[in-house]
What we know:
The chain is an alpha/beta fold and 198 residues long. It has 2 domains: 117 residues, P-loop containing nucleotide triphosphate hydrolases (Rossmann fold), CATH 3.40.50.300; 64 residues. 44% of the residues lie in helices and 13% in strands. The protein is built from 9 helices and 5 strands. A 5-stranded parallel sheet has the order 2-3-4-1-5, with helices on both faces. Helix 2 links the parallel strand 2 and strand 3. It starts with 10 loop residues before the first strand and ends with a helix.
Amino acid sequence: MATASLSASSLHAVLGDSLRLRDEALAVLLAQWTGPVKRASEPDDLGRLVLDLSTASLFEEPALWVVRAGLPYLRKHRETLLGLAGQPVAAGAMVLVCPPPERNDALGPLLKALAKAGAVHDVEPPDARQLVDWLAHRLLLPGAPAVERPRQLAESLVAGLGDDCDGLLGAIETLATYCGGSPITPEAVAELCGGTAA
Length: 198
């Protein structure tokens, strides 16, 4: 994941298959922005938004645009977006939130320019071999629900629910609610996965 600040480029991209991990990375970027935040999903007027980001306004405070988009939309508008990559923030910034493209995708030049500016934030979950360790570590982070035996809990979650990162993180939230403030235990995971949770 890139470590450059939001001010390093007018355009950033948060890439990943996991919706939850993309939103977590987006939250880190949003925390750096002090002005208004505007959101759009595949906007019809992307060209106007890009023009607005390169021209300071006397009437509006610079905004951060969060644009969620699919790969076909981004391929269609890649030339429009390329002009923002690596440019200093003048009249706002844009963060693209999208799934990662395949190798040799038409988005290659855009992503290469963003990577050069340190503006690509790749948030792929770990592979299956590292998933239990990754999940056990997340269970110990500040703000995570209280748990007992985090490694065993992570193993139980992966064994019962598979390797879908979003599903595992959602199950932890469900378990926290189910346990009602008590620490989450591997036994609670067994009840959830076995369908006996009430």
